[in-house]
Design brief:
Blueprint lengths: L10 H12 L3 H13 L2 E2 H7 L4 H13 L3 E6 L2 E6 L1 H15 L20
Helix pairs in contact: 3-4
Length: 119
């Protein structure tokens, strides 16, 4: 049995590629920008800001969740989404290390997106 091409690369390389792939669509970048600005939103609120159908936005949200970029929580009958800053910082740090631009650990940045105040 032969190995798949991705098995020839390190786990970190595969992880970085999956993360980067999740960002490889303008709608996903728009969702990330929206959540950065708002802190937290439901899929309906996200749909209202994008020129895409609800089903398409849901697919993009699922891709971002699968990559670990989004947190989610129940907001009554809806689900609220916010950015997973820890995962994003880890990716950025790993990518910088891969490029040789840093060898220091990532600096924690306080996140306010999931506080009770913004819920």
């Amino acid at each position: 049995m032969t190995a798949s091409k991705t098995e020839l690369f390190s786990e970190e390389q595969s992880s970085l590629a999956a993360f980067a792939g999740a960002l490889a669509h303008p709608a996903r970048i728009a969702i990330i920008e929206l959540l950065q600005n708002r802190g937290e939103s439901t899929s309906g609120e996200i749909v209202q800001t994008l020129p895409l159908a609800q089903a398409t936005v849901s697919q993009h949200i699922m891709a971002l969740r699968k990559a670990g970029l989004l947190n989610h929580r129940d907001c009554g009958k809806k689900i609220c989404y916010s950015l997973n800053y820890d995962q994003i910082r880890q990716f950025c740090h790993s990518f910088q290390c891969t490029l040789g631009t840093t060898d220091a650990p990532p600096t924690p940045v306080p996140s306010t997106c999931c506080t009770e105040e913004n819920a």
